[in-house]
Amino acid sequence: xxxxxxxxxxxxxxxxxxxLRESPDYELCQLSGQKSGVLDDLxxxxxxxxxxxxxxxxxxxxxxxxxxxxxxxKPAVEFLEExxxxxxxxxxxxxxxxxxxxxxxxxxxxxx
Length: 112
What we know:
- The protein is mostly helical.
- It has a domain of 36 residues.
- Helix content is 91%, strand content 0%.
- It contains 4 helices and no strands.
- It is flat.
């Protein structure tokens, strides 16, 4: 029984380095060791993509704000503030109702 456990343990030790070598982090580490500046290049590319995605999301937000104004007749910020306030009121009322219902159920079960 001990021999099987030792074999499994030894097998895991050999698998671990193999798993490490298969990871993208290991590959990146190897590339950065072979070619200086590769991390800077990757970071620059990632920053460029994030800037591009941010600009696209900003355009989409502007289009949605215009659509909200057309549909509601109010600026998007004003409409959304009113909507969120109303939602809070509804959730508060629902929460009070639920708490009251739980209390009633508790009272009826405990015969208070």
